[in-house]
Amino acid sequence: MIQLEYVLIISAVMMFAGVYGFLTRRSTLAILLSIELMLNSTDINFAVFNRMLHPEGHEGYFFALFSIAISAAESAVAIAIMINIYRMLKNISVDKLEKMKW
């Protein structure tokens, strides 16, 4: 059986990769993927901490399931926004979004 510390290390690496991708990428799609990577890292943490603290309970798994549903809805809305940005500007780079400001 895999030790829980290893899974937490993988989750931390995923979180840092998501933060790095969020801060360095210029494409809105790459930024969305980085956010999804960070959210998946938190889902892993929910499951691992549930197993560590309450092995007989399922609260962490329900939190992870709820988080996955929210992530799916967030992705659908973000992709719809990206499609509208592309229709207006013919580019989805964050640097080109000056027209969208107030």
Keywords summarizing the entry:
Helix Hairpins; single chain; mainly alpha
- Write the CATH fold name: Helix Hairpins
The total domain count is: 1
CATH architecture: Orthogonal Bundle
Label the overall shape: elongated
Q: Count of helical segments?
A: 3
The sequence of SSEs as H and E is HHH
Q: Mind describing the biggest β-sheet? A: none
Give me the secondary-structure category: mainly alpha
What is the number of E strands?
Answer: 0
Give the % helix: over 70%
**N-to-C terminal Cα separation, in Å?**
54 Å
- Report Rg: 17 Å
Low-confidence stretches: none
Task: Explain this structure.
- The protein has one domain (4-93): Helix Hairpins (Orthogonal Bundle), CATH 1.10.287.3510.
- It starts with a helix and ends in a 13-residue tail after the last helix.
- It is built from 3 helices and no strands.
- The mean pLDDT is 87.
- By secondary structure, it is an all-alpha fold.
- 76% of the residues lie in helices and 0% in strands.
